[in-house]
Amino acid sequence: MSEVRALGVPLDSIASCFEGVIPASMCSCSREGLPNVTFLSIVHRMDENHVGLSFQFFNKTRKNIHENPRAQLIVVTPGTADQYRLDLRYLRTETDGPGFDRMRARLEAVASQTGMSRVFRLRGMDVYEVLDCRSVNQEGRSEIVSHADSIRELEAFTGRLDNCEGLDALLSTALEALADLFGHRHSFVMFPDEDGTRLYTGASYGFDPSGVGSEVVIGEGMLGLSAARRSVVRVTNLALDKVVARAVRSGIEHRGEESILDKEIPLPGLPDVRSQLVLPLLSRNRLLGVLCLQSADPGRFLESDERVMQIVARHLAASMASTMAAGSAEPKVAALQSDTAPAASHSVIKHYRSDDSIFIDDAYLTKGIPGRLFWKLLQAFVGTGRAAFTNKEIRLDASMGLPDIKDNLEARLILLRRRLDERCEFMRLIPAGRGRLHLDVRRSLALEELP
Amino acid sequence: MVGTRDSELVPELVRAWGPRVSQDRKHISVCVATAAGAKTIANLQDNGRVAVTFALPANSNAIQVWGRCIGTGRPHRDDLAAVQAHRDAFAEVNKDIGVPPPFINALWQRELAGSPAMVRIRFVAEQIFNQTPGPDAGSRL
């Protein structure tokens, strides 16, 4: 390792230049003395004297740095538009390690989202020693680095979660607190399904409509890859990433090589999302879900935000695991009779056995496990008048034919509850505390089972 | 962006504004901030080798021109008008990728904060390459 060299401008003081909000430029030079200029989307600040650049394609830059290791970068501060020159010397190419893994996670997540997984491949991270860093402008003014530690906000966040009973309340409180305390006004939590193939949205904040129930495939796109790899995925200018991806796509189509392209995957949430931070929610290495923060502004989630949100995600996951375990241990409580007399109006609920989809007066409500659960509750309600249920009896009811969903049950019930809140005016599923549910129905119902 | 190198093959970059093609289509000119471009000008006076990349942010379409400098000096009125037109257009097209116009204004105002002077670089294009990201990047045009 080279000795630490004091730079004209410390890299730490211009950290935001390395967030990928504004593309960097690079100049290399061949042995024959021909300069070459390119644009870069990722410049990874490894430490005070080293940066890592993505190596995806064999090109002139690659040829040049092996002939002549000297290069120069210009990076731009997103806030102030100050520019800095970094004089570099190529050292080596890494194909593993934390820096490479981090770069690959981001690159592959964006590639998957834009249908370019077979095009954008990180071959390595080229490591350069930074010989000097100085301002391009005569009156250089390196940004003041904020060392705000967010301790107060974190303390308040954990305090609010302490008072929550049940998964639904926990998630609602957490997402609201992210907006109140940290200013993250658009967030959602997705849960994995039973067989670990999909994620579906179970709670959201700051979206209209809520997006609850939207799904992505685990292993695809930024959300799916974060879940599959259990790694954080952060993008700071998705609009720029998409423009580059579309340019590459257009070039590939022009050559008639469409077979290596996949479809661009729709991203749940904001239609004009530019910044996104996806954090896996892990408890003892078990995936409970992912927390996703979005913003329409580029550069909204920086490295410092990621660190703070990692703490938030870990605390939220621990709280979720604890809440789910408490729910599993609930004693069975006596079933209650409905205290709500159905009104005079009438609705038909249809259940299709083929996919457990539920339609209320021919309007789709849900399908899959939540559909099967709801059908069971409705059958009990219409057949016997029961309106009160416990999580535990549902979990243990063999006649439901449910897979081994264990502590995932509550996540399914949250989805069902939110769907009813959004799509049905006369039925609600109300959490009654300590693992109990109350089905509130304000119409007479006719059930119809179909193949 | 303009790339040059010194006699030790050490590269140097600077942002350029207001590209113009001469009426006889034999050379191209761009303007750079005098203070920010001091090393660039020195390099061009030393060896004349220059690489200039032109990119459209809205769709990432880009070309790179390799050439030889045939002169540096004070920009004419038409050059400065091209600089202004370039800045205005650059601010407009960057809106689509989430970069607000005030940021683009700040970008060039910061370049000229120490000195408003600009210098014009005239060069002859020798080779032109496709620089749009994708399978054809680097191919000769």
Question: Characteristics of this structure?
Answer:
heterodimer, A: 451 residues, alpha+beta, Pnp Oxidase, Chain A, Beta-Lactamase, Arc Repressor Mutant, subunit A, seven-stranded antiparallel beta sheet, six-stranded antiparallel beta sheet, 10 helices, 20 strands, B: 141 residues, 3 helices, 7 strands, 27% helix
What can you see in these coordinates?
The complex is a heterodimer of chains A (451) and B (141). Chain A has 451 residues and is an alpha+beta fold. Chain A has helices spanning 60-67, 98-113, 151-162, 167-182, 221-229, 238-254, 303-328, 368-384, 391-396, 409-423, and strands at 24-29, 35-40, 43-47, 50-55, 70-76, 83-94, 124-135, 187-192, 198-205, 215-217, 233-235, 275-283, 286-295, 346-352, 357-360, 363-366, 388-390, 427-433, 436-441, 444-450. In chain A, the strands form four sheets. A seven-stranded antiparallel sheet of chain A has the order 2-1-5-6-7-4-3. Chain A is elongated, with a radius of gyration of 26 Å. The model of chain A is unreliable at 329-342 (pLDDT under 50). Chain B has 141 residues and is of the alpha+beta class. Chain B starts with a strand and ends in an 11-residue tail after the last strand. Chains A and B meet through strand 1, strand 2, strand 5, strand 6 and helix 6 of A and strand 1, strand 2, strand 5, strand 6 and helix 3 of B.
Q: How far apart lie the N and C ends of chain B?
A: 19 Å
Q: What low-confidence regions of chain B span 5 or more consecutive residues with pLDDT below 50?
A: none
Whole-number total of structural domains of chain B: 1
Helical content class of chain B: 25-40%
Radius of gyration of chain A: 26 Å
What is the subunit organization of this protein? heterodimer
Radius of gyration of chain B from CA coordinates: 15 Å
CATH overall fold name of chain B: Pnp Oxidase, Chain A
| CATH class term of the largest domain in chain A | Alpha Beta
By CATH, the architecture of the largest domain in chain A is named: 2-Layer Sandwich
Q: Which CATH first-tier class of chain B would you pick? A: Mainly Beta
Largest interface, chains and sizes: A-B, 53 and 52 residues
Give the CATH H-level superfamily of chain B: Electron Transport, Fmn-binding Protein, Chain A
- What series of H and E elements makes up the topology of chain B? EEEEHEEHHE
